[in-house]
Amino acid sequence: MNRTEAEYNAVINVCKELFIKKTKDYGTAWRILRPSSITDQIFIKAQRIRTLEETGINKVGDGIIGEYIGIVNYCVIAMMQLESSLETPLEMNVEEVSSFYDQKIKETYELMMDKNHDYGEAWRDMRISSLTDLILMKLLRVKQIEDNSGKTLASEGVKANYQDMLNYAVFALIKLDVK
């Protein structure tokens, strides 16, 4: 297993563990959210990270690491919701959710490995604040696509943007040494 794979998997294990615990606590209440609401939840988390980075003042407890974990998990939720239909039950069992989570992570991991090959792991030399800004930029793109009823002329779709945001958040968590 290479370094990136080991670090990526360690971060995802932390994120998934929290996701499954919250699923046990709350069920799949997130299933009620429309894609635009999920996008806004991710935006809130990314904007808070940026505020904490810029001010260094945290008045409500949860820090940057918790917000990045939240971005990872909300991106997974977004991708699950994109593939769910009206027939998908609101309440899903933990095993089903866990399997769905793993599927979305596998797809996103494969995309990351392809991009890492082509870009030479440039993210390792980036500042965490740049990763935050890239997430915010992707969010603004997703909001525009959502406002255009999902139509694009020359751009990748919403799912690819969620995958990129998830990977940027994982990179930040790796750089923050989350294990």
Quickly count the helices. 6
Shape: globular
- Rounded to the nearest angstrom, the distance between the terminal CA atoms is 16 Å
Q: Ranges with pLDDT <50 over ≥5 residues?
A: none
Largest sheet: none
Q: Kindly state the percentage of residues in helix.
A: over 70%
CA gyration radius, whole angstroms: 16 Å
Please report which band the strand proportion falls in: under 5%, 5-15%, 15-25%, 25-35%, 35-45% or over 45%: under 5%
Structural category is mainly alpha
Elements, N to C (H/E): HHHHHH
Instruction: Please state the average pLDDT score.
Output: 94
Total count of strands? 0
Q: What would you note in describing this structure?
A:
With 179 residues, the protein is mainly α. Helix content is 72%, strand content 0%. It contains six helices and no strands. The protein has helices spanning 3-26, 35-55, 64-83, 94-119, 128-147, 158-175. It is globular, with a radius of gyration of 16 Å. The protein starts with a helix and ends with a helix.
Summarize the structure.
With 179 residues, the chain is mostly helical. The protein has helices at residues 3-26, 35-55, 64-83, 94-119, 128-147, 158-175.
Summarize this structure as a short list of keywords or feature phrases.
mainly alpha, 6 helices, about 0% strand
Topology:
Elements: H1 3-26, H2 35-55, H3 64-83, H4 94-119, H5 128-147, H6 158-175
